[in-house]
Amino acid sequence: MRNLLAADFARLWRSKSLWISAGFLAIFSARIVLNLWEEARDYDLHASLESRFFTYALLIGLLIAVICPLLLGPEHTAGLRNKTVLGYSRAAVYLSALLTCAAASIILCASAILPGLAIGILLSSGFKMPVPLAVLMILGTLLLSLVWSALFTLIPMLIPNRAVTSTAAILLSLGLLLWGMNCNGMLEQPPTTQAYTITVNGEATPADPVPNPDYLSEGPVREMVQFQADCLPGGQAYQYWVANTERLPRKMAASAVLFVGIGAAGLLFFRRRDLK
Amino acid sequence: MNRLMCANMSRLLRDRFFWICLAFMGLIVPLCNGIFGNFFYALSATAIPAAFCPLFLGAEYSDGTMRNKIAMGFSRFSVYLSDFTVCAVAGVLFNSAWLAGTLLLHRDGGMPIDLSLPFLLCIAGVCLAWTALFALLSLLIQSKAHAAVACLLTAVVTFLLGIQLTILINAAADKVAPGTQYPLELLRDLLPGGQAYVIAIGDFVTEGQLVRFPLYSLGLTGIVTIVGMAMFCRRDLR
User: Fold this and answer.
1) Range of A82's domain?
2) Which of A109, A147, B44, B45 is deepest in the core (most CB within 10 A)?
C-alpha cells in the first residue's frame, strides 16, 4: 500500500493541471478578498470577510471534476493492470487513488483558503462571525471538497474512457451545483411579496403584502428540499458561498457520510469491474 | 468536400451520444425550464455542444480517421470546414429540438422565450459562435480527454464571465464605477457566454442588441474559424 501511495503521490506532485488550478484559486481568492479592502478605501463600504471569503466553495467542485479524471486517467492505459499483476489488491489500488484525489482536493482548498485568510485578516476587518465558527466553516468546506473528490474518483475508476469521464465529471459538477442553487433558491423565497395598488393617476402605491405562491411553507416538502440543500454537495457549496452557518453540524456529518458512502460504493463496484 | 460532408453526416446520425444530447435538449430542458427558468436553457445550450464536439471530433484522431482523410488527398482546409459544418448542424439541431419541445409544452401559451425572427437569429448566432470555438479546440487538441476539458472549461468560464460582466455593467449604470459601462458592455456582447446570458434573461435585451448580437456572433465565428483553419493547416498531425 505504501508503494502504491508513493507512486500515486509522485504523479500528484508532477501534475501540471493541479498546480495551475491551485495557482488560479490562490490568485482568485486573493483578488476577491482584496476587493473588500478596495471597497472600504474607495466607497467606505465595510462588508465582512465572510461575504467574499467562501466563494472558493462554489468553484472547488468544478476544479476537482477537472483534476481528478486527468490524474487518474493514465491508470487505464497500463497502470491498473500492472498494479493488479504485481499482486496489489483491488481495494488497495482504489483506496490509493481515493487518497490521492482527496489530497489533491485539500491542496486546492488550501490554495484558496490561505491567501484569502492572510489578505482578509491583514487588510480588512476580518470575520464578523466568531473565530471558532469560522474555523468550523473552513473545515466544512474541506469536508465538502472530500465529497467531490470521492465522487470524481469513482467515475474515472469505473469508466475506462478518459474523454467520457472528464466530460461526465464536469457536467455532473455543474448539474449538482445547479440543483443545489435551485434548492436554496426555493428555501429563500419569502412568505409574502409586496403588492401595489395603481391609483387613478397611474401611480403605484404600496398595498398590503400578498402571500408568495412560490413560498415553501413548513412541512414535509420544505424538509425534503432543506435536506437536499444541506446534504448534497451542490447545496452545501451554495450555502458555504453565502456564509450560511445554520445547521453546520448536519452539513459536516452529511459530508462525512457521503465521503465514506461514495468511497465504499466505488470500491465495491471496482472490485467487480472487469479490467481488460 | 461533398464526400467528407456525407461521411461526417452519416457518422453524426449513427452517433449514440448525438441522439442522447438531442433527447436531452428536446425533452429534459423544456421540462426543466419550468423549474430552473431560461438560465437552464442557456447553460444547456452551452454545455451540451461543449460536451458533444470534442467527443465527436476527437474520435477522428483516436480512430485514425483524420490521418486517413489527409492520406486520401483531402485538403486540411476541407477537412476542417466539413468538421466545423457537421458540428454546426448538430448545434442547430440541438437548439431546434429545444424549440420544438418548448413549443409543444407551451402550445396553450406562456412561451418562456420570445419567438420573433431577431431573437431566433441571436440564438442561431450564439450557437454558431460556440461551435466555432469548440471545433477549434477539438481539432487542435489531439487528446480527446484534454479537448473535452478545454471545451467545457471554456464554456463555463465564458458563461460565468458573461454573468459577472452583466453585474459589473449594472453597477456601472448605478454610477458605482462610471466610465466603465461601455467597454464592459462591448466585451459582454462579444462573448457568446454573455450573449447567451442576456438572451436567457430576456428582460434586458434592447433593439440595438438584437441587431448587434448576430453580427458580433457572425464576426466571431468567421475569425475563430479562419484562425482555427490556419493553425490546423500548420499542425503536425500524429
Assistant:
1) 2-183+240-272
2) A147
Is residue A224 in a domain?
Answer: no
At B65 the pLDDT is 84
The number of beta carbons lying within 10 Å of the beta carbon of residue B16 is 7
Judge: B149–A73 Cβ closer than 8 Å, yes or no: no
Q: What is the pLDDT of residue A102?
A: 94
CA distance A132 to chain B (A): 32
SS3 of B15, please?
coil
Residue A215, domain member (yes or no): no
Report ipTM (2 d.p.). Answer: 0.81
pTM score: 0.86
How many CB atoms are closer than 10 A to CB B194? Answer: 27
Residues near A162 by beta carbon (within 8 Å), at least 6 away in sequence: A69, A73, A76, A156, B144, B145
pLDDT band at residue B210 using 50, 70 and 90 as cut-offs: confident
Closest CA to B44 of B32, B35, B53, B59: B32
C-alpha cell at B168: 459589473
- Comparing C-alpha atoms, which of A139, A140, A162, A148 is closest to residue A59? A148
Nearest neighbour of A70 by CB, restricted to B40, B149, B156: B149
Number of domains in chain A: 1
